[in-house]
């Protein structure tokens, strides 16, 4: 799950969202948590990963398994 942050950042940018916007949509008041996860300084909780999965319409496997890539077709524009 070392690549979760990289994948999160890719999805966020692809959908034209700032870190603050993503934090707001996910229900977090502190956008710094998102930044820490993106930089790999914090591991995401299962709840956080599930919210990201649902928001961007990607599977938990795609987010958490380093060997899998984000399927562009399953990540439509928001």
In short:
The protein has 5 helices and no strands. The protein is mainly α and 78 residues long. Mean pLDDT is 90; it is low at 73-78.
Question: What can you see in these coordinates?
Answer:
The protein is mostly helical. It contains five helices and no strands. The chain has a single domain (4-62), classed as lambda repressor-like DNA-binding domains (434 Repressor (Amino-terminal Domain), Orthogonal Bundle), CATH 1.10.260.40. Helix 2 crosses helix 3.
List keywords for this structure.
disordered C terminus, 54% helix, 78 residues, 434 Repressor (Amino-terminal Domain), 5 helices
* Total of domains: 1
User: Would you tell me the structural class of the helices and strands?
Assistant: mainly alpha
CATH topology: 434 Repressor (Amino-terminal Domain)
DSSP helical segment count: 5
Distance linking N and C termini: 25 Å
The average pLDDT value, as a whole number, equals 90
- Mind telling me the C-alpha Rg? 11 Å
What is the correct CATH architecture? Orthogonal Bundle
What's the layout of helices and strands?
Layout: H1 4-14, H2 19-26, H3 32-38, H4 46-56, H5 60-64
Helix pairs in contact: 2-3
